[in-house]
């Protein structure tokens, strides 16, 4: 059985990856997660039910801890998801992003390098460090620009994107300088079960279920390229199995949509799945001030991973969104438990009174 040390496995994508890895028998998992606000206790509880799973609460930047875990668990791969991940929070508190995404990744790499150098030849050959990054490192596209390719120059615009770009460069340098067998993936916007309701799609679902405003930044015409989270996790498994060491792979859902269209589609889906007397979900849509420096368009060209590794997404936006909404409808206890004091404080700090007033 392969052994995966997963960082940030209590967050959205990490938890989906761990769940799939354990239910589909990809290997055993040690999950190292700091349990920040983005790690939902109910998500951790779901993972605890699965076989071949261990959890350690801790920081990826804590070198003695990481050293200890590497020595005792002896992983065949490190799958590095842990990060501060919300652009709006990075605008408010960039230092947290530098600390985890840059310093944390640097510390992790240093310990992983030492561990990998001490492995016997066969295990050293087999070992992989997979770094999960974002399309946001490439900056913003104009309406007619071709989608991001792996060789698109980096041009990060938010503190979040800059911190992820810095971590990508560190990973690249550890491969180039020390030969550490790294692979980096840059994916587009994920959606699906277990996503913390501060990101667009789960925020809108939770607001709509509460009959509260759906805040759209600016004119709602910013474009994102949507990827169903399980498709992303399967792509990562494919990269682990077949990816060429030192390479980067873009992962996307071939699904560009303006935000307003995403939210309208969501409203229409809720109208069908959960009709409520006197509630037209679309009427909850509320335009609010734009995000500072808001990137206009992201789009991924995923032909490299399709051509070289044979991966492609299984879900369309319509099938993925329906699965997502059905999951949130079936897990309202999860949604309720996510409404912590910290979460409510974030909504008030970020949106003011907009979110609580019925439009
Ligand atoms: P998330 O915010 O949902 O989860 C992050 C997890 O990391 C949480 O469980 C948190 O507790 C943990 N964590 C944070 N700081 C830590 C630290 N110092 N040490 C250990 N654990 C720590 O994030 P996500 O959406 O699951 O994203 C996972 C990765 O994918 C991130 O690296 C992110 O940059 C990248 N990514 C996400 C998306 C997306 O759409 N969600 C898109 C592109 C790339
Ligand atoms: P988000 O989910 O924060 O992901 P990212 O900024 O990493 O792409 O936002 C997705 C898009 O939705 C982005 O263009 C910003 C927009 N957005 C809103 O219009 N309103 C909101 O309340 C949020 C959170 C996002």
UniProtKB/TrEMBL annotation:
Instruction: Return the EC number.
Output: 4.2.1.46
Q: What are the residue boundaries of the NAD(P)-binding domain, all occurrences included? A: 5-324
Q: Name one Pfam family in it.
A: GDP_Man_Dehyd
Q: Per its UniProt entry, which superkingdom is the organism in?
A: Bacteria
Q: What is one Gene Ontology biological process annotated in the Swiss-Prot or TrEMBL record?
A: nucleotide-sugar metabolic process
Q: Which InterPro entries match?
A: dTDP_Gluc_deHydtase, NAD(P)-bd_dom, NAD(P)-bd_dom_sf, Sc_DH/Rdtase_CS
One annotated GO molecular function is:
dTDP-glucose 4,6-dehydratase activity
Q: Does the keyword Calcium apply?
A: no
Instruction: Please give the cofactor(s) recorded in the UniProt entry for this protein.
Output: NAD(+)
Q: Which UniProt keywords apply?
A: Lyase, NAD
As for family, the record states: Belongs to the NAD(P)-dependent epimerase/dehydratase family. dTDP-glucose dehydratase subfamily.
Q: What is this protein called?
A: dTDP-glucose 4,6-dehydratase
Gene name, Swiss-Prot/TrEMBL:
rfbB
